[in-house]
Structure formats: C-alpha cells, structure tokens
Amino acid sequence: MVKHAxxxxxxxxxxxxxxxxxxxxxxxVMTEMIPQLFxxxxxxxxxxxxxxxYANFAFLKDEAALRxxxxxxxxxxxxxxxxxxxxxxxRLLTHLAPxxxxxxxxxxxxxxxxxKHAGKPFIVHDFAALPFADASFDAVFSCLNLHWVxxxxxxxxxxxxxxxxxxxxxINLLGGNSLFxxxxxxxxxxxxxxxxFSPRCAPMADIKDVGGLLGRAGLALPVADSDxxxxxxPNMFRLMADLRGMGEQNAMLGRLRQPTRRAVFxxxxxxxxTKFGRDDGTIPASFEIITLTGWAPHESQQKPLRPGSGxxxxxxxxxxxxxxxxxxxxxQG
Length: 333
Known about the structure:
Rossmann fold; seven-stranded mixed β-sheet; 11 helices; 19% strand; disordered N terminus; disordered C terminus
C-alpha cells in the first residue's frame, strides 16, 4: 500500500526529483512540418474562464477518470511519483486515490486558475513542452486533454522519456466520433446562412490513427480501446453551455474572429433537432473516449516470441487430428 507523501517541503522535493527546469523542451529536428491547427492562447483563456465553476460541468471528466481508475485497479503495481497532465481541478486523483496505489501526484495544466482547486504541487505549462527531466515518473496520466495537441506523436515521445523503466502511460482523449451531430449541424447552418463555413469543432483523431502512437513512441505492451457516451440535452444551446463550462469551446487558429450571426445558431439548432432529435424533443450528443495504455520498456515484461519458434501445431491445441505423431506438417488433402 502506497502512503501519501506530506510536508511543507513536498513541492521542492518533487521538483528536485523530477529535475524541474524552466528551460523549454527541445523537440528533435523534424523533416516534416507539423500543421498548427490550435491556438494555445485561446485554449488557455478558455480553461482560465472555466476554472471557477468547472466542478459544475465536470461530468464528462469524471466518466473518463473512472475508466482510467478501472484500469489502474486491475494492475498489481504501486506508483510512487505520478504526473497528471492537464489536471484541471485535480479530480482524477480523487478517483485514483481510493485504490491505494498512487503515492504523490504532481498536477499540471496550462491554466493557472485551476491551481486554486487542484492539490499541490501544481505546475503551469503548455502541452507542447513538458518541463521535466527524463525518467522522473512512475506513471503519467492524462484525462481528456490531448485532443487539443497539434503534435500528438511528439508529445507521446516526451511522455515516454519522462517514464522510469516499467513506468505506466495511461491517457484518454476525445475521439473522432465525438460531437459529430453538433459538427454537422453547424456546418450545414453556416452554409445555409452565409454560403460557407469556418472551423468550429476541433478535428479529433480516429482510434486507428492514435493506436499506433504508443509503439512509435517506444512504449511496450500497447493497448488502445474506445467507447461512446451519449448525453441527452433539451436543445443545442444547453450542449454549447456545457462545452463552455468545460473550457472546450472553439480554439481553432482558423476560427472566425468576429461574433457569429445569431441566425447561424438558430438554424443550427433547427437542423440538429430535425436531423438527430428524438421523439420526446431531446437531442443526443455523442462523446467517444479513446483510452491508451503503454509501458516504458523493462526486461521483466513479456515479449513476443520470434516468428517460427513455436513447437506445437495449432491443430493439436484445438483438438484436430490432422498432424502426424512425429510432428510433421499437417497432411494435405
């Protein structure tokens, strides 16, 4: 059972253990430019505004955190020093702490306003550059944040470097099927009213795309899975209010920089209701949660056998009788 660390000098001790530094992380030289889709200043501003009342809109974060906690509960491991990347108000720890497997959790987020609500220590930094020394953590968690990252492959490499041998990377993020109803309604409405459309909903990765990132980042035993939540709303405006409360409103670089005409939103609400509405007048909002699990390599981990090294025919295992006693190849018909 892991005991929670305490004491006035806890923050300084953790900074020392993590090699915390104000130096920016130097990304490796890339031969290919990473498209810049998101505005980090807008992201930070949205989160800052949401911080004070975030607890009133955190139902989706709680659902995602429960999924991470379920996976940790199945692990026969303790994690002494951990990082919560994009901690918001630190509620992930409230789901993990009862398991008795987490020692000290370091919270980090781009929005300093969350520091009032999350536990200490709390570090403010952008997702693009993680200001910690290599091999600092036994586990790195992130709950519903990384869909706002332009260079997700690069960030996964950084996370891998932060882990000690046999350290855990356990994250989830919104997937490509999230809010497809809202996206379709806004595009159709803007085309109807203005004759064109602007970026309003962040593009999100498909599980087939993000599943391979774990192996590319050098993480072992990779697992990727997804599930969908459907939330019921009385109308589109209530959904948009929840997104603002979560700090999840539009932060695209290509977004409109002037207020959207009211007619666009009214038309979008009409289209949403017509195309996706239910018989009782409510509308569904879909959220796909993709969960990724990987481990920093260690000699104790299971490794796949070399192809061709097997000594038993599959037919023997499943009870077939088409193998010779001396182990020759299966008989040909």
